[in-house]
Amino acid sequence: MIIETLSMGTLEVREDQVFHFAKGIPGFDEEADFALVALEESPFWVLQSVKERGHSFLLADPFTFYPSYEFELPDDEAEELGIESDVLVRCIVTLKEQVEASTINLLAPIIFNPSGLTGKQIVIHRTSYHTKHSLLQEQLVADGKDGG
Fold it and tell me: Where are the membrane-spanning stretches (predicted)?
């Protein structure tokens, strides 16, 4: 399938890269189908609408930046997505002009069912996670720098 993007031009994506979001993504409810495109040699992906070239999100593997990140996927969410075993978790990244100021949304991860090609952004309840964790903070602490 050929899709048009603003940031990467024309892309050819495989069927197994296109995920269906039954209720869209909050704020983009009209968009139901998105291609998940890996950015080579990086911990980032682009979630690109297959219909609207201007609708895309930068995603990251949260475990790369926050190895201690964890949450329990509610049974009803797993059932809605048809998840039986494989699950893929990605979080939306907000890039800032100064990369040190970039953030990752750990409160509302996007859950993918790679075998059923379904996806959904969920909100984790009863947690200390929020929408704007520093993309580099845990790595700076691990390296012995406090970032301040």
Answer: none
pTM of the model: 0.87
What b-and-e string marks burial along 2-38, b requiring 16 or more CB atoms within 10 Å of the CB?
A: ebebeeeeebebeeebbbebeebbeeeeebbbbbbbe
Per-residue model confidence as pLDDT tens digits over 71-116: 999 999 999 999 988 999 999 999 888 878 899 999 999 999 999 9
Which range of residues forms the domain containing residue 8?
2-142
> What are the backbone angles phi and psi of residue 135, rounded to the nearest 5°?
-65, -30
Return the CATH number at 58.
2.30.290.10
d(CA 119, CA 116) in angstroms, rounded, equals 9
148 domain-assigned: no
**How many domains does the chain divide into?**
1
Contact 87, 72 (CB under 8 A): no
